[in-house]
Every structure is written in structure tokens, then in C-alpha cells.
């Protein structure tokens, strides 16, 4: 069963609904994003991994697949970080799936969480 979180893709002024699906399976450790992602979306895996690590959460050493559906729509931008992270947390059973059922998520991550020692962040 895949964990699912809703988000959107932007094409000019058009907004297209996108479903972020995550599965965690046995196999060699990997983190793959599929569904026609651009370079910024493909780089989400590193921002998500780093942000979760800064919170003390490690990704499991398994095969993680993120699918951004529909697959025929180009996904551009870094706003897919948050839905990918949330779907990962649901797949890891760190968040209950029903908490996100009626929400649409978009947002970009920093590599670390905010620090009160760094004003302006």
C-alpha cells in the first residue's frame, strides 16, 4: 500500500492536481522519484533526507519509491519537498494517514531546521 499526499503542479496559470505516492519496500537501499520530475524535484530527495535527519529522523535502509501522478505531467519546482516528506512519514508510520486526507501540501525545505541562534531564518 502506498502512502498518499495531495499536492499540485503549476503550468502557467493552470493548476493540476498531483498525488504524491510513496512506497517503502525490501531491497537494496535507494530513493527514487518518478513521474516526470524536473531537476529541482529530483533534488528533493536530498533536501528531504537532510531536513528529516536534522529532526533526528533517519530514512529506513530500504527501497523508497516516490511517484508523482499523473506521470504525463511535467513536475517543476521545489514545492514538492513537503508532500514528499509527509508521504514518507506516513509510509514510515510516523504520521497517521487520515491526518492528511483532506489537505493539499506544498512547500520547499531548507537543509536544516530553523535555529533561534540565526535571526531571520
Description:
- This protein is α+β, with helices and mostly antiparallel strands and 121 residues long.
- The protein has a domain at 3-14 and 29-98.
- It has 3 helices and 4 strands.
- The chain has helices spanning 39-42, 44-54, 81-91; strands at residues 3-11, 14-25, 30-34, 63-69.
- A 4-stranded mixed beta sheet has the order 1-2-4-3, covered by helices on one side.
- β1 (3-11) and β2 (14-25) form a beta hairpin.
- α2 crosses α3 (81-91).
- The radius of gyration is 14 Å and the shape is globular.
- The model has no long low-confidence stretch (mean pLDDT 90).
Highlighted features:
121 residues, 3 helices, 21% helix, alpha+beta, four-stranded mixed beta sheet
Cα-atom radius of gyration? 14 Å
Percent of residues in beta strands?
A: 25-35%
Number of DSSP-assigned strands = 4
Unreliable parts: none
Strands of the biggest beta sheet: in what spatial order?
1-2-4-3
Encode the helix/strand succession as letters.
Answer: EEEHHEH
Please summarize the sheet with the most strands.
4 strands, mixed
Helical region count? 3
Q: What is the terminal separation in angstroms?
A: 37 Å
> Into which percent range does the helicity of residues fall?
10-25%
Structural class: alpha+beta
Mean pLDDT: 90
Task: Categorize the overall geometry.
Answer: globular
Amino acid at each position: 500500500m502506498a502512502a498518499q499526499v495531495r499536492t499540485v503542479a503549476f503550468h502557467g496559470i493552470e493548476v493540476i492536481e498531483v498525488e504524491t505516492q510513496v512506497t517503502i519496500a525490501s531491497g537494496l537501499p535507494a530513493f527514487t522519484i518518478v513521474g516526470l520530475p524536473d531537476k529541482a524535484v529530483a533534488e528533493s530527495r536530498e533536501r528531504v533526507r537532510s531536513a528529516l535527519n536534522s529532526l533526528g529522523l533517519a530514512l529506513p535502509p530500504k527501497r523508497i519509491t516516490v511517484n508523482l501522478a499523473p506521470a504525463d505531467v511535467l513536475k517543476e519546482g521545489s514545492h514538492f519537498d513537503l508532500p514528499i516528506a509527509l508521504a514518507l512519514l506516513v509510509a514510515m508510520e510516523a504520521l497517521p494517514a487520515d491526518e492528511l486526507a483532506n489537505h493539499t501540501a506544498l512547500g520547499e525545505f531548507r537543509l536544516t531546521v530553523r535555529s533561534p541562534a540565526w535571526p531571520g531564518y
